[in-house]
Amino acid sequence: MEIKVGEGWTVEIVNPTALGLVLEKILLERTRQDKKWGEQNHQPEKWLVILQEEVGEAAKATLEGSALQYHDELVHVAAVAVAALESLSRGKWAAEREKRGAGG
């Protein structure tokens, strides 16, 4: 399976079943986050703090030898990264920076 991702760029999906399952888990986690917290539009610095916290939990799971917990934490890492991208795509960060006079 190939997916066109941009002008002149295609990605070959080697195992679409595994990818689909992973993306479904990320989507479910994003849905859970939105239900719990509502739409989040943090500054990039705050998103990075949240993301680092999730990465830390994934690292802790590896140190404790829990493959299942590691898997779950990686889903959280991916979901937080997606949430940060969604927030950035909404354009509210740039608008807030402009209001504060910090430029683009």
Could you list some keywords that capture this structure?
single chain; 104 residues; 71% helix; 2 strands; 4 helices; mainly alpha; globular
Q: What's the layout of helices and strands?
A:
Elements: E1 2-6, E2 9-12, H1 16-37, H2 44-63, H3 67-89, H4 92-100
Antiparallel strand pairs: 1-2
Helix pairs in contact: 1-3, 2-3
Strand line-up in the sheet with most strands: 1-2
Structural class category: mainly alpha
SSE run = EEHHHH
Instruction: Give unreliable regions as ranges.
Output: none
Give the CA-based shape: globular
Largest sheet: 2 strands, antiparallel
Count of DSSP strands: 2
Rg measurement, Å: 17 Å
Q: Beta-strand percentage? A: 5-15%
**Overall average pLDDT:** 86
The DSSP helix count reads 4
Spatial separation of the terminal alpha carbons: 38 Å
Helix content: over 70%
Any idea how many domains?
A: 1
